[in-house]
Amino acid sequence: MGKDSTVVTVISKVKNDTPKTNACLVVISGADLGKRYILDKTSTVIGRSSKVDIQVDEDAISRDHAVVDNYAGVVIARDLESTNGTFVNDVSIREQELRDGDQIKIGRTIFKFLSGSNIEAQYHDEIYQLTITDGLTQIYNKRFFLKEMEREMSRSVRYDRKLSLCMIDIDFFKSVNDTFGHLAGDHVLRQVARRISESIRRDDYFARYGGEEFALLLPEISKVEAASLAEKIRALIEQTPFEFDNIAIPVTISMGVAGLDEYRNAVSDTHDLASNINPFSFIKLADDRLFEAKRGGRNQVVSS
Question: Of 30, 246, 259, 265, which has the maximum CB count within 10 A?
């Protein structure tokens, strides 16, 4: 998501100016989370001014920041020479035709473009997704993660299955925000989440736990295997700097790893363990090791 990757799409205005009414923008990250804006005008201006069609009150947004032109069958997003740029699917654009599901980022607010014959069903599905995912990183949110973690812990205890947990923290993240700005910080969060998501299985649970901290639950994986995976992820993040606005930003992570067998041993009354599952006790084991990794110099994995 850098201006170095600007895409310029030349699009001729469609002769028929009738708006395509079955299209809308849904806020998936920002102050008005879940709010829907129907694109029923030929031009919908987004910005900080009180006179625009969609007002987003953020310092990083220009007064007239971007416009979405809606002609029959074609919807186009255009940047209005804003200070911080308009991004479609993490790519800086001047003009871009939108496809169903495209994400438009303006400042720290992210809109999702929906179109199609069954837009009402799409909208309600999107609202459900907002209840389980983090808007910025598009991975699970903390609430959903804890719910699934409790279910996986109960299953693993009942059937004596392996289960491991990794707590992950971006090193010196505050300095990224302070040095490069919050937009760069958001970019780093999204890209760290993307790189880790691409390195795990579909059955794993990966969530933004809070701020710059992430949690990764690994069913059917022993602590030794989890520690090996964690080291691969740590190296993957360190090896390639993150780029934002033509600037390379070095990023590292620290990780703490714990196994469910340790949780069992830590619980004094194991007789009724299955009915007294406590995800926070398990998280504390991994979180304590994350703290050790940070105290020991950061950019490392601690599993014991």
Answer: 259
Q: Rounded distance, CA 129 to CA 192, Å? A: 21
8 A C-beta contact, residue 235 and residue 252? no
Residues 218-262 pLDDT 10s: 999 999 999 999 999 999 999 989 999 889 999 999 999 999 999
Closest CA to 99 of 88, 85, 108, 87: 88
Residue-wise pLDDT for 163-174, tens only, equals 999 999 999 999
CA-based end-to-end distance of the chain: 37
Distance, CA of 6 to CA of 176 (rounded, Å): 23
CA distances to 45, 126, 130, 141 from 56, in Å: 11, 20, 19, 24
Positions annotated as catalytic residues are 212
**Which one, of 290, 303, 300, 298, lies nearest residue 171 by Cα?**
298
What distance in Å separates the CA atoms of residue 109 and residue 58, rounded to the nearest whole number? Answer: 9
Residue 271: its pLDDT value, please?
53
